[in-house]
Amino acid sequence: MRILGPFAQIITLKHLICNGPINDEALEVIGFGGIVVENGIIISVGNFDEIKQQFPDSEIETPEVYGVLIPGFIDCHTHICFGGNRRMDYAMRLNGKSYLEIAESGGGIYSTVRQTRSISSDDLYESLKQRAIRHFHEGVTTIEIKSGYGLTIESELKMLDAINKLKLNSDFDIVPTCLAAHMKPKDFEGDEWAYLAHIVSNLFPELKEKQLTNRIDIFTEKTAFSLEASQWYINKAIENGFDVTVHADQFTSGSARMAVETGAVSVDHLENTSESDINILAKSGAVCVALPGASIGLGMKFTPARKLLDAGACLAIASDWNPGSAPQGNLLSQASILGTFEKISISETLAGLTFRAANALKVNNVGRLDCGYKMHAQLYNTEDYRDIFYYQGALKPCKVWTN
Question: Which residues form the Amidohydrolase-related domain (predicted)?
């Protein structure tokens, strides 16, 4: 048993609600705090002197920095397993080319598909590992990682094998997701229905047998899969015992409502969700995942985060780190910028990066600094938690704790 501390402040996120607005006054801020950990699990949190009296035989670990301790971030939507880059796409966007024009000229998702298929399994794993380690050093202790740049049975399995290898060999937590329904590959002979049926018949059994993931994702959009085909696919995934998340309403509206009606755990993007669908989302129980990195990368409007919160939604914030639309990958910077534009309180932002994001992944033992939770935490060299967001990602954690 160890006592960590003292810390200038511990932000526990205890008692904060999972839905709707949160006022900063609701935050529990423990000054001169300490935290007791045994076998990676938090036993107690409180005033450092009181903790020492309560656990007199414990080893004391005093951090080099008298700073602010907060829970580790949970990035519940990333695409960091890929080969190559899309710098050409970025340059074309700056010259006024649309998403569709870039795709038609050889860029877009399928460009990454070609590069990911051609890279060796070892090189794919090493590049994935380096991105994940960078995320960890920036305070992200749980990372969801999608496939989706293979789009064949063999290549999707190659990606999921790399993600699961990282899961087995990391001190941080990894949640794999199968996004074989990212788009219909150009080299598949048949329409979208035939491709999705191919995935259901030939990939789903492999995912189950090899225990590669219990999560299925689909991109529902004019450039990807139709509402009708997506609904059929989601139903098949649920019938097969998978949890489902959906890329919805990124460029056009309507898919968020479909996702809710079919039982998605989370509905991600939502930049073009209608006013009426905001209320449907808020009442649904699904987690709404804002992806400000894509808005910054594509130069488009943000997810209507303030409206979603005010309607009573559970709002998570994720990076969407990918080689095309969101290459930056700095979750804290993106969340801080989203907060500025959408007028989200620091408490709401913290919730969206921690326990509300955990809900999107159906993980219940991370996201707060409380008894029974994993000791996933990060320390910042400041004496006021507000600085973490005030500096919009320039202030980095000086120490991160995980398993």
Answer: 68-376
| Domain 73-361 architecture | Alpha-Beta Barrel (3.20)
Q: What does the pLDDT read at residue 98? A: 81
Peptide linkage before 6 cis (omega within 30 of 0): yes
114 class by beta-carbon count within 10 Å (0-12 exposed, 13-18 middle, 19+ buried): middle
pLDDT category at 183 given cuts 50, 70, 90 is: very high
What's the pLDDT score for residue 107?
Answer: 84
pLDDT band at 44 (very low <50, low <70, confident <90, very high): very high
CA distances from 133 to 143, 269, 298, 355, 397 (A): 10, 25, 25, 21, 14
Which residue, 153, 145, 102, 103, is CA-closest to 124?
A: 145
Better-scored residue on pLDDT, 99 or 102:
102
Domain with CATH 3.20.20.140 in the chain: 73-361
**Is the pLDDT at 360 greater than 80, yes or no?**
yes
Residues in the chain: 403
Token pair recorded at residue 304: 């209507």
The Cα–Cα gap between 278 and 30 comes to 35
User: Of 278, 75, 296, 322, nearest to 179 (Cα)?
Assistant: 322
Whether 403 shows a pLDDT value over 80: the answer reads: no
Q: How many Cβ atoms sit within 10 Å of the Cβ of residue 187?
A: 11
Cα 17 to Cα 75, 338, 352: the distances in Å are 19, 20, 11
In the chain, residues under CATH classification 2.30.40.10 are: 2-71+367-401
Residue 169, burial from CB neighbour count under 10 angstroms (0-12, 13-18, 19+)? exposed
Cα–Cα distance, 173 to 175 (Å, whole number) = 7
**Predicted local confidence at residue 101, as pLDDT:** 84
Cα separation of 159 and 203, whole Å? 13
- The architecture CATH gives domain 2-71+367-401: Roll (2.30)
